[in-house]
Amino acid sequence: MSRRLSAPAALAATLLLTPVPAAHAQECGGDFRQFLAGVKQEAVAKGLSPQAADRTLANAQIDRKVLSRDRAQGVFKMPFLDFSKRVISGYRMKNGAANMQKYGAIFDRTEREYGIPAPVITAFWALETDYGAVQGDFNTVNALASLAHDCRRPELFRPQLIAAIEMVQHGDLDPQRTTGAWAGEIGMVQMLPEDIIKYGKDGDGDGHVYLKQSAEDAILTAGAFIHSLGWRAGEPWLQEVIVPQDLNWAETGLGKTKSGSDWAALGVAPRSGQISGDLQASLLLPQGRKGPAFLAYPNYEIYLEWNQSFIYTTTAAYFATRLAGAPVYNQGNPDPGLSDPQMKQLQTKLQAMGYDVGKIDGILGAGTRNAVQQVQQQLGMPADAWPTPDLLNRL
């Protein structure tokens, strides 16, 4: 969850992490025991006990599988309809409803204190770990030590390793037994140690924050974290809509907003409920003008803080609306998209034309979507940012 570092979950982790001093960054890749000695020295300088540092680091070792995962990670390339159908199963819908009822008291407390509705937390809980069933089996200390020692992103992971020492000192992490995701996230909602320390809440009253075992702790902590990102209590986040076929498609997409009233005046209508007329919203077309359409309100931006992947983010937000009672989307009949080789070919062509699409990776990210939309406008095509074989052929 929090500032995630591994795919398919979030890639927004660099926003809040404390930079590492240059001298520490230079330790990467050298003698591992010397590196650990430096980590202990830094931890003690920050007020942590030498004993906690020794307990945490004494048996730490490099996990080559972690480094392999780090180099191989990629954002999900499945289109929205395929991805959402796969992850929003009947099982997850049924269990989500059951968990919201079972833990109703802590969900009510979380909404009172932080303003986060139960369906929002429950959707993340489902997508991250299948309600706690799949939390990862990588030793957390080894994962963090491996990534902090590696020279690719030491400035991101060294603070997390030191935060793990603090968790050991608090009695909230067992360096030998605590496991989680390959990038060091722990628990039912997959949080990194720094964020557990900062936002961790004892939901069950046992004096500890155990995100692996305690659903109450995980729910209340998730609420505190989402609140810290700027969630606006009482407001919607995503709403499925019906769009007129004569809409100016160039006005759709993230970063382009109108008030709900303005969208309604253009013929955009809700499939259920009412459009929030006084809120700004973007019109999202995950698979173009012939597929599902959603108004994304300001709270949708919080999902992007959790995870920068557009497909994951939109799926999580849509899943939360379903848990809150919204109907299944109208999937429409989208135009065929591009295969992975075709997407890379398109990105190469767009880059040659001067567009910033980022890495040629076959991922329909924000840069590629923006470039596609601009080129569609130039060619007189419907500018819905959905790349098709027809567009590729015209280029």
CATH class of the domain at 238-323: Mainly Alpha
Based on DSSP secondary structure assignment, what is the total number of beta strands? 7
End-to-end span in angstroms? 39 Å
CATH architecture of the domain at 238-323: Orthogonal Bundle
Any idea what the shape is?
Answer: globular
How is the largest sheet built, in terms of strand order? 4-6-7-3-5
Low-confidence segments: 2-26
Individual helix count? 18
| Main sheet: strands, sense, barrel | 5 strands, antiparallel
SSE ordering: HHHHHHHHEHHEHHEEHEEEHHHHH
What is the mean pLDDT? Answer: 91
Radius of gyration: 22 Å
State the secondary-structure class. Answer: mainly alpha
Level of helix content?
A: 40-55%
**How is the CATH topology of the domain at 238-323 named?**
Lysozyme
Approximately how much beta-strand content do the residues carry? Answer: 5-15%
Keywords: Signal
Signal peptide: 1-25
Protein name: Lytic murein transglycosylase
InterPro entries: Lysozyme-like_dom_sf (IPR023346), MltB-like (IPR043426), MltB_2 (IPR011970), Peptidoglycan-bd-like (IPR002477), PGBD-like_sf (IPR036365), PGBDSf (IPR036366), SLT_2 (IPR031304)
